[in-house]
Each structure stands twice: as C-alpha cells, then as structure tokens.
Amino acid sequence: MIRTLGLTSLYLSAAFAVSAATPPITYYKHALPVIQKNCQGCHRPGEPAPMAFLTYEGTRPWAKAMKQAVLRKSMPPWFADPHVGKFTNDRSMSEADVKTLVSWVDSGAPAGNPKDAPAPLTFTEGWSIGKPDLIVEIPEAIPVPASGTIEYTYVIVPTGLTEDKWVQMAEARPEQRAQVHHIIAFVRQPGNKWFREYPVGKPFIPKRGGDMGMGEFLTGYAPGSPPEVLRPGQAKLIKAGAELVFQMHFTANGKATADRSRVGLVFSTEPVKQRVLTLAASDHKFVIPPGAPNHRVDGAITLHKPSELISLLPHMHLRGKAMEISAVYPTGEREKLLWVPNYDFNWQLWYQLPQGKILPAGTRIEATGYFDNSPNNKANPDPTQAVRYGDQSWEEMMFGFFDIAIDANMNPMDLLRAPKKAPASGAGAE
After folding, report:
1. CA–CA distance, 271 with 360 (Å, rounded to integer)
2. pLDDT digits (tens, 9 = 90+) for 385-416
3. Which of 44, 162, 191, 250 could bridge across to 150 with cysteines, CB 3.0–4.6 Å?
4. Which of 95, 116, 137 is the last residue of a domain?
5. C-beta separation of 315 from 281 below 8 A
6. What are phi and psi for residue 335, nearest 5 degrees?
7. Domain range holding 290?
8. How many CB atoms lie within 10 A of CB 175?
9. What predicted TM-score, i.e. pTM, was given to this entire model?
10. In the listed set 240, 272, 304, which residue is the last one of a domain according to the structure?
C-alpha cells in the first residue's frame, strides 16, 4: 500500500513538473504574432473585414470562429491547389500558425501578459501603395439608392497628364465600402472612341453594355484583391491626355448613400523595360442549364509574341465552382498554371507567379470554369433558371484574367494579331 502511494505521488510530481515546464498559450505572447502576420491586413478599420483584430478585447469574442475558419482553411482566403504552381503571394496559413491559434482557443483564449506582446504593426492609412504621385477621383458623388438593382455605372475622368507616364503601382479605393461591390479603372488612351458619346465627369449607365475590351485594364478593387504593384522595370502606360474610365458596381444594402471612389498612381522612377497588360481567356456566349451541378465553360486566347506571365485571376459569379488556367505551348505541351478547386465569389484573388515565367510566341492561354447551378449550391440565386453572361451577380461570367509583360516598345496589337502566313512556294510567280 505504501509502495503504491509512493508511485502515485511520483507520477503526480512528474505530471506537475511537465505542466510547469510547458508555458501556457496566451494571446499576447503566442496568438497575436500569428494574427498580425495573417489577419490584421484585412481585419482593421477601413478594410474589407467586418471586424477588427487589433486588440485582445476585439479579438476574444471571435476566438471560436477563428479556430473553425483556420481549420477549414477558409481564412486567410487562399484557394489555389498547393500541388499546382508556385505563387509569391501565397497567403495560406502555415501548419505551425494554425496549431498555435487552435491551441490558444482550446486553452480558453487567455490574454496573458501584455508585456509579451510584439510591437504593433504600422499601416499606411488610406493607401497601401504609400503616398500616390497622382490621385484621380470621381468628380461628382454618385448617388447609391437604399434598395433595388443598380446597373454598372461608368464615369470618365481626365488624368490631366501632359506627358506619358509609366505606372508601377495603382490602387483603387472606394469611399463607401459597404455599397461598392467592385471598381475597375480602365485607361482610355487618346484617340480611343470608346464611350465618346458620353460626357466627361458625369456618371452614366451605357445603353449597349460596358464593352470592357475597349479600354486597358489599369487596376481594380474587390474584397481580397490587392493593389497593382509591379516589379522594378515593369509598368503600365498612361499616355498624355488619357482618361480613366471608372466602372462602378454598387450593391444596395438598405442605406442610401453617395460615393466618390478614387485611384492612386505611383509612377516608375527607373527606365521601363516591360509594358504590362491585363488580358483574359473568356467566353460570353455560354448557357448554363437549370440544375446543372458541374457545367463546363471554356475560353482561350493566343499570344503571338513572346511575353512574361506575371499573375492570374479567375473570375466567376455565385454559381462559380472551380477554375483551371493552363498554357498550351507551340510544341503542343500543356502546363497547368492554376487550379482553384473551391472558388469563392466573395474573394477576388490574384495569384502572382515568380519572375521569369516566359511564354513563347504562339502560346495559348486556356481557362476552364465549372459552374454549379444545382440546388446544392447554397449561394445559387435560382437553380430553376438557365444562366447566361451578364453583369449582375445572379447572372454569370467566365474570365481567366492574367497579367503579362511585353517589350516596352512593342505594339500591344501585335501580341494578339496572328502573323500573316508566308505564301506557298511558287505562289504569286508570273
């Protein structure tokens, strides 16, 4: 009996020793560094997330939800299959960070000692790209009603540039985040006849749709979409006298307001070697049958000059399920560039490739989107309806956007214009 009690005492002492040697997982010492690295970029005032994670008091009520989100890998938002491609902006959380957050929540989410906290992060208020060299703002506030469907609204805004400028960084920022679904800022270069029938500086809803291919995509805003930040030596061109065309998609949320969104530009300070263009492999003529659980839509575009692939962005609406973007080389070899098996319309993410992904002349970029128009899709507005291309979220789109860099002196039209075939031997001989 005495021996048994002695063994029990020994075991308890060892357990207490192990417990004492293992420090508790606390917010300030363990969880906060993980939250700073993975969450605070969006979870702070003025950014897309609906709650701020800058303090213990603001974070603690969301502890259990945070645990569920990181275990499901729905947060931080990152949807690329890790077995396809490598991306320099991969925001998926490491297993070590996931373990730290889960352990903190499972231990009761204690605060710990505030003296253990790392230094607070500093954020650039108003602009993620730093102080812009030029800000182009919608001149008149656009009224946004409290209810109803709001068609895409456009505004043409002069840049005031008197000389050509190369833009290395661009950022679109809404004034009313709660009502702005997205912004796309296009460059209307001098001589471009796109929307010439509409007045400059006044919002309008075009009679014939946006014809978005008529302008050069500069930058955009949507939840999760980062600013345009290009590598040194790469830039987008805005010529002297050009204008920006704002495409505004507002969503009524029960509160009437007015919005003056803006775009900030940072110009390149060194010689530009490569001009960057945003293109897309797309399809506008699809019909998704009622109830179809996995309808496939394909789009492709051929590049007739050498270029460097910079980044990729899949875009669909609420029925979007998955997307694959591939390159088919002139040799016939196919390379899968991106596979997003669980597409989420709420997060429009660019996937940035490492430098040096060269596409030879004749490369075809192919995008394949899969759509779930069945009742099993909880986001489906109406599974009984056939779905076609359209601007609104209950309609659909299929775009495999991508950024490429070409020689700064190349005419962009040469990239998309198929070279003329050489005449057959003896052809034309008299």
Report:
1. 24
2. 999 999 889 999 999 999 999 999 999 999 98
3. 250
4. 116
5. no
6. -125, 125
7. 273-416
8. 16
9. 0.86
10. 272
